[in-house]
Amino acid sequence: LLSVLVAPRMAGLRVDFGLLLEPLGFIKVLEWIFSIFAFATCGGFQGETTILVSCKGVANKTVTAAFAYPFRLNTVVFSAPDPKRCGGTWTDVYLVGNFSSSAQFFVTLAVLSFLYCIAALVVYIGYKHVYQQNSKLPLTDLAITVITAFLWLVSTFSWATALADIKMSTGASAIPGIESCKAPGTTCRFASVTSMKSLNVSVVQGGNIWFVYKDTSLHNQSKRISQ
Question: Are 197 and 47 in contact (CB under 8 A)?
Answer without folding.
Answer: no
